[in-house]
Write a structure and sequence with these properties.
Length: 171
Amino acid sequence: MRRPLIAGNWKMHTTQAEAVELARGTPKRTAVVLADGKPAWTRKFEETGFVAGSAVVDGRVFCVDFNGMVRCLEAGNGEPVWEFNTDTALYAAPNVHEGIVLIAAESGQLFGLDAATGKQTWEPFTIDQPLRCWPTVVEDCVLVAGCDGKLHRTCFAFLLCTRMQTLELGR
């Protein structure tokens, strides 16, 4: 059985599957089997494009487009599982931690979506500048660099959090 992987918008290697996604800025996702270079599947989406990499976790592909749509696809065949519209441009690859899809948005918001259902798990944290970097999780804290020159940190126990901490990085 061929197991596909969507790993980004240019050739990248990951340890989570056995193929790569090669399209950049196009309205489609294509999984290619690394062993033989043959396409495993292609899924086209209308009036959009993908400029960020994808996260592949537990047989699912999580991808974002520049129109603000977050999509969950079956890794094996590219079939859609769920969609969530953030109403803002998305240029950073998503991250998945403990069943939560983390999305950094052009609007300065950090979204958290349930990986199984696509439902929003908390109200987005917001800064006054775009977030264009991949949300990183370290010791149950989410770190994301903003276009404001600051590193923003919040605990992963989001229901207990009321604010983000920031660290000045300079420009």
